[in-house]
Request: fold
Amino acid sequence: MLTEKEKMEHELLNILTDSQDPMGSVTLSLLLKERDLDVSGATVGRMLSEFDHKGHTIKHGYKGRVLTQRGFRRLDELKTKQRISEFSSRFYESIDAESRENLISVLTARRGIERESARLAATRATEEDMADLKKVYKIQRKDAVNGIISSDNDVLFHQAIARASKNKVLAAAYDFIWQNGKLSPVMEYIRTSVGGTISVDHGKILEALIVRDPDLAEKRMMEHIDSLIIDVNNYWSQAEIDMRMDA
Reply:
């Protein structure tokens, strides 16, 4: 997301791009107001001086500034950042735990991301990575035996695999999906309701990682995600039956 300063910078550069003649701070301030940005002439003047310093604009005496090639490149950078921000917002909004379809979509996305993460982690994980995975799994297994459900441990286990893959894009993709704090508790609740146990699946994945078998690690991860998808479908099917019976 663009900062407030970047938004103003974006608008100023846009205005200068559209103009064939040099423009001064007073004119630019008035044009910004037309775009619902209430900025004083003094503030615009300071920004223009900053543009000059960075080589984004060239001053033509008292007439004002015109954009340089460096300024055009800066505007392209800001436009790209804005597009990425808008895409990220739409993507985040699609990650909703309130319907079967959305949960299945999220799990399908996870399936593609995490099968590759598991495969890479099997060969790239360091001893420290393995120690982290074993530690998280040990806590999760102990909690499961004691009847304690902790969605945090589920996230930590998968994050550890993503980190162990040594692929920053895969790790960032996983983290981005799980920014929505509702997902893991909902999945844990659903799995518990239908009698599934996440820690059992994690144990099988960990075994494959310990023996450094990428094919097996990928297979176990896919089985895990597929079992979650089955659990979601089973839960919603039962919920629909219960609602019809109560009607």
Notes: The chain has two domains: 4-89, 98-246. Residues 214-246 form the longest helix (33 residues). The chain is about 75% helix and 0% strand.
